[in-house]
Amino acid sequence: MAQQAAKLENDLGRDPIPQLVLRIAIPSMLAQFVSVLYSVVDRMYIGNIAEVGKLALAGAGVCGPIVTMIGSVAFLVGVGGSPLMSIRMGAGDPKAARKILANCFLMLCGLSVVLMALALATREQTLLLFGASGSTLPYAMAYYTVYLLGTPFALLSTGMNQFIICQGFAKKGMQSVMLGAVLNILLDPVFIFVLDMGVTGAALATILSQLGSCLFVLRFLFSKTPPIRITFGGYDLRVMGRVLATGFTPFAIIAFDNVMIIALNALLQKYGGPTEGDLMVAAATISQSFMLVVTMPLGGITGGTGSILGFNYGAGRPDRILQAQKFILALSLAYTALLCAAGQLLPGAFASIFTKDAQVLPLAVRAIRICTLAVIPLGLQYTIIDGFTGMGMMRYSLPLSFFRKLAYFVPLFILPALFGGMAAFYAEPISDILGPLASLVVYLSRMRWLAAGAKAPQK
Fold it and tell me: Which parts of the chain span the membrane according to its record (predicted)?
């Protein structure tokens, strides 16, 4: 009976849409919010290391987007395979669903080892290229080297967790992330301060926490509880290719988001010079931490509920898809409105968690205010892009994602050249307006078959 109840936690094809969206979106949002604590807690403790906190924080800030870019491979496979698995489950084909999961598990295992080896071999050149200075490089190297050793744990825990959520087990998905975050919060002060390991201790605490999440996820997916479990065999290059094609959009979004951060750090170093460059990078690290609080839980809402859209797309139920998208959009806009208000009214309270430095703090407050000027439309952008991805429609989601990146990069390089380093932060609100506008136009012109109640075209 307990096993039966677990399998019926969320019936993606029959449960009422409002309750279904809430039961999946809220745990997914909370899971991503808690996962933000991985980087935020690390940076908070690092920024408060006696005497060297300012430089150590800047060094960790340089590492942040690089390790996140490596971690985005988990979404290439996890978010690439989970919508395909949802569609097959909705179409009543569990054999095909199991085959997708088996291929995704193999890909994540192989890619994690290859990425770890490549990143370790090129770590110093990478850090120098992407914004580390002579003063911050030792701290960046210490953090990055240790963190890379946990790459398999990070990729498997994040990537395979998508296959828990897409089967309707949103609470289990949340528990896996919360386990890692709680471990990180507990271990960080022990390794950083008690054992006096500094940034090396922060990285070690993180990879041990990721190991805990990884073991939780794999134990669940190898158990008899989920309808679709990890199996071995049935490996197929065509299936792998389809997964990579489907996952390229979320992978590209995360990877290019971090390319944007890397470019920002490099430009701040360039225009800030030897006197203000490290200060601006430290301020940017704090503002980026705030933006993670915006975007990762928002992605939890829109990405987690993609399983509802994918399942009902496979089942040919456009009425349920359209109804779900309305509730997802309402939740997304409410969340971004709340974070916009926090960014404008409480940036000092957030920034002071990371540093009390009289030079860095005012720069961080100003950066947060600029970056959150237009975050409300991001609720629309994420709903549309992740909705397309959840239904396997990368022909729409990928170009729209790239358009928003283009809308960021153009002002990023022009504004600081004209108005100084801090003007680079205005690239964020510009892209947050232009990207959602383009997405809305495409959605309204391409998705009328949903509003008309037509049967979803099968791929």
Answer: 20-41, 56-79, 100-121, 141-165, 177-195, 201-222, 243-268, 288-315, 327-346, 366-385, 406-427
CB atoms within 10 A of CB 144: 25
Q: Which of 439, 382, 428 is nearest to 405 (CA)?
A: 428
Among 385, 382, 405, 404, smallest CA distance to 393 is for: 385
Q: 341-345 long-range CB contacts below 8 Å, 24 or more apart?
A: 342/372, 343/290, 343/294, 343/368, 343/369, 343/371, 343/372, 343/375, 344/369, 344/372, 344/373
Quote the CA–CA distance of 255 and 363 in Å, as a whole number.
26
User: What is the pTM for the complete model shown?
Assistant: 0.70
Q: Pick the more confident residue, 168 or 435.
A: 435
Rounded distance between C-alpha atoms, residue 243 and residue 97, angstroms: 12
The candidate with the shortest Cα–Cα distance to 32, out of 339, 243, 389, is 339
Say what the pLDDT of residue 454 is: 39
322: helix, strand or coil: helix
Please name the residues in contact with 75: beta carbons below 8 A apart, sequence gap of 6 or more: 158, 159, 162, 247, 250, 251, 254
What angle, rounded to 10 degrees, do the helices at 17-47 and 347-354 form? Answer: 50
Select the more confidently predicted residue: 394 or 243: 243
| C-alpha to C-alpha distance for 277 and 131, rounded to whole angstroms | 9
List the structure tokens of 394: 């990368």
Tokens of 322: 């359209």
- Coil, helix or strand at residue 452: coil
